[in-house]
Hints:
Helices cover 38% and strands 13% of the residues. With 328 residues, the chain is of the alpha/beta class. It has one domain: Rossmann fold (3-Layer(aba) Sandwich), CATH 3.40.50.720. Helix 5 packs parallel to helix 6 and helix 6 packs parallel to helix 7 (187-209). The model is unreliable at 1-5 (pLDDT under 50).
Amino acid sequence: MSTRTSTVQQHPLNSPFSAASTAEDVMAGVDLSGRTAVVTGGYSGLGLETVRALAAAGARVIVPARRPEAARKALAGLPGTPCEIVPMDLTDLGSVRAAAAHIRETAGRVDLLMAVAGVMVTPERRVGPGWEYQLTANHFGHFTLVSELHPLLRAAQGARVVVYSSGAHGITDFRWHDPHFRTGYDRWQAYGQAKTANVLFAVHLDALGRGDGVRAFALHPGSIITGLQRELTHREQVDLGWVDEQGAVIGEGFKSPSQGAATGLWAATSPLLAGRGGLYLEDCEVARVTDEAEPKGDGWVRGYAVDPASAARLWELSAAATGSGPVG
């Protein structure tokens, strides 16, 4: 499959929604009764908004959580069927496999897998066999979870996997020469690489799964102040123009959490995306491909992030690293 083949469908679909749309707008009239959704990071920020909307629409929602007690408190009292909490740490692949095994034992299928959890611009940390922390938490953990749950996705006969990336994928292509920053760490470069990995993962997952009806999408939810920015000091956020001295959000184009969750929910449920996949989305729309040095406006994705050859290469690297076999 050529790069051109993968990007020819990467163009807007005239969605009825926009950057201003909320989770409630996107989910109006959507009935998910009888469907099962797995949402990582589903107890804070955009993940919590996502779980709230899915549960209200009637879905059974399973939330893998690094902090199960915090998850129980955050999810208590949500409308709809009570959410199920499964202990899981994305940076501990043994924990990921144990969580997946529990889900396989208790669920006959998974209709929606929302990979919302993530970390951002963290200090240098090493996990597992010396892996870079952001790549592990944002990519390797989700790669392993999806691989382990793929039989349940196939059983759904129409499942969708939605992977939260970011416009920060534009910082850098995947660093094939040094993905774990052995030669010097830069937290923004590490974040950008992990977000590019998220897009490439969705591209190849879709290529492998489409024959079984498993389609995958990656997305930029927009700029939203949530717990994701916890590693940035208040002064750094002020200097970036995101918040004022009092902590009020002032960044141009910043969204509310409900608006931030809208694109992921649109990816999971929109009939406009039926029969499609391997696409990068933003503002409840398919983004355009750009190779401009400094793209103008919103709604773009770098060509390197949707290149199928790179996506296949990253899949092979990830399978070898994690010991998770290729989806088949």
